[in-house]
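Exercise 3.2. Students should predict the tertiary structure of the chain below and write it as structure tokens, then compare their answer with the key that follows.

Predict this chain's 3D structure.
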Amino acid sequence: MSTLIAGLIISIALLAVIIYFNSKKDSSRKFRANCVIAVLPLIAAFFIASIAVIPANSVGVQYSPFTGVKEETLPEGWHFKGVFDTVYVISTEVQTSNLTGITGQTKDSQYVEMIIDVKYKVSPEKAFEVFKQYRTLQNVATSLISPTVQRSIEAISTQYNIIEVLGEKRNELYLGIEEELTKRFAVNGIQFVSINFADTDAGSEIEKAIQDEAIAKKRVETAEQERLRVQIEAQQRVIEASADKEKAEIEAQIKLIEAQAEAQANRLIAESITPELLEKMEMEARLKWGWVIVQGGSVITDIRETE
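Answer key:
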């Protein structure tokens, strides 16, 4: 609209100048040509006003003073439009809202204050609805994002107590908030991208109580680990003592078996030596070594040659 007004003003000024300088002259072809030239800015303004350029990662929403907002949005690129229409550019790039002072109440009636960074973007298919409700991204941030984050946190935080929120179930709480935000944003034409919890604070007293509990829990865990260590060492000593006992018993059994075997062998040898065997052995010795006679304390040896 401003382009048309500018073109109209320029054309009117040019026509006024031309008419003034040709007021005392007869009409001529040159006068008519000058009038045409004077209208050219207005024609150019009409042409420019009929073109809309939508930048990358954006959509255009058309507003006509005669028919109102058109539901069909314009994608990236160049488009023709009505010369009296206004095109509002809505960015579909990722936006970030830094939120402080967001609070959530737990099921044990404690309050948690959070500092949050939320990333989101306008859904291209829902840009028309977003524009009708909020007009600008600034209004989206202040009128939609912040209240929706607050309500989502309140809806999820009441499912946990303060110890769980700041302790072992913190990640579970965060995932629940993300799911809740995704659903609530989608209803309003916004795509949830991510959320970062920069800080979660429950006050110094609660923080100290949680810290004390964590220290006590750690002491219990340490004591339990020490008990298990002592128990394992005791079991190991029992196993080693049992192994030593078994080894001693086995060695004793081996010695007993060896002694029994030796006794059995000696018995068999003793049983096998008979008078007849001794007589035979004596005869074999005499045949080999000669005849031995003992008389009156003198020894007579008859050595015979053996072959």
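Discussion points: The helical segments are 2-21, 29-49, 127-134, 137-157, 162-166, 170-187, 204-272, 275-289. The longest helix spans residues 204-272.
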